[in-house]
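Could you join me in thinking about how sequence relates to backbone shape in a protein? Would you write everything just below, so we can both look at the same thing?
***
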Amino acid sequence: MPIARVPFEVGGRALAAFRLANAAGAELRVAALGGAILSLRVPDRDGRVDDVVLGYAEPASYVSNPSYLGVIVGRYANRIAGARFAIDGTEYRVTANDGPNHLHGGARGFSHAEWQIEPFEEPGRVGLMLEHASPDATEGFPGTVHARATYTLTEQNELIVAWYATTDRPTHVALTQHSYFNLGGHGAGDVRDHVLTVAADRFLPVGSGLIPTGELRDVTGTPFDFREPRALGERIDAPDEQLRIARGYDHCFVLAPAVDPGSGEPAGADELRFAARVIEPVRGRTLEVWTTEPGLQLYTGNYLGDGLRGKEGATYGARDGFALETQHFPDSPNRPSFPSTLLRPGQVYASRTVYAFGVA
């Protein structure tokens, strides 16, 4: 069956979780808790199907989920400096859960919510619609936000993630999906051999607390130049100050704008732009990422705890997975020069990302 309910029990309570499958051999499992992608199985060049996202051994681990494995993060993905911002002259203080800064929606953000989840089926695709209402003052954010996410699995082995949100008061909204990928299989070891291309001429250098300095730095001559394919591990331990601060890659790239294929002119903000391509050389799996977002956070799992107990008997350590988080720039609420994340009543937050799996 292309859609089936699967077991997912936390503390003796059964929570909603579903399995989606297509005729090409791909399979996606998603839980209502955090909207977590529990597993994503896709074929390699020889037709062998493996799970390519990291996950916990026990469903209960998704309750705390300090590494944000597989979940929806929000209201605000990434960091807000000083856990504060101002809107229309009023200052708001949000939860400081990363030292003095705010990270990924706070202590009980979207990643910890129990989303309402319903399956759907359309010609050539199956999917899940997830909905969550975040009350006013949650984690310090103003406004009641109604959020909706859809996960769609196509027959072409694409996972399409779409986001929508509305608010009744001005607030900041920036959402992303926080799966960690290992295209060799979730327990295959580190991802240093994965070959990455990123469509970005600039990245955001960070200071203490991994907060952007405000500079949009040219990648030329730096370990952040992935305009041509380079292995993730090729320069990750280079004597570079930015890599030292983050213990590897944990930086936002400024994506090239989408281009209209007919005219060659810049396309609208709601058009997909090519963000990245990853090739795993042994099994031959590939991943292409397309998004409407202006930024891409590359995170190489630098803080994955050694010995983290993963599913199917696996253990994970630092750099055993990578995340490609399509998003707005970190600390945008405090950086007027960055693309705005401010959402006002009557506006609709809308975002879309495509994870396209294939083989090389």
